[in-house]
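Cross-check.
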Amino acid sequence: MNSLSSPLINLATQPFRRERAQNAVIALACAALSLSLLFLVSLILRERVQAADLRRSIDIETAALRNVALEQARYTGVLRRPENADVFSVSVFLNELIARRAVSWNRVFKDLGTVMPNNMRLISVRLPQLPSEDTTGVDHLQLDMVLGTDKPETIVTLLKQLESSKLFGAAQLLAETPPSQNDPLYKFRVTVAYDQKL
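Predicted model, tokenized:
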């Protein structure tokens, strides 16, 4: 009787049901998502550690900058005292004098001769200003020149040669004067950075 009431299933002849395949796929997907979650959590924790290190570095640099600013304010206060004003102005004057006396004018003219076209004349050169630091952190003298030529296109050649030279920096054309009855030359006022070591 019992054998008639319960159906017999032969596993060899019955294929796996679809639910088993779906369960296997779901289990694999869950495992992959769990691994992804663990990976993302580890990334988040590592980013937090790096952010904390960066905040510590920023705090240290900010404290150092604050100390430098306080020290600079203290030195500025000392320099602004009335009893130090004369010493400061004399020091600035002497530094300018030393810097200008240290310029070799023979070398200036020789270096300009290497870049000037043949049909251009140097009419005047003003004393260079004190060295000014450019964006590369290098000190340069600033030459202020008046140049003359019979062909105005020569100035383009000069500007290109100044900029390609290792001794001169970027040149700037400040003014241009056309020829007159008394002076047949085109005149150009040019400033250029000059790298003569003081």
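Residues 16-80 form one domain. The CA atoms of residues 61 and 90 lie 36 Å apart. Passed to J.P. for a second look.
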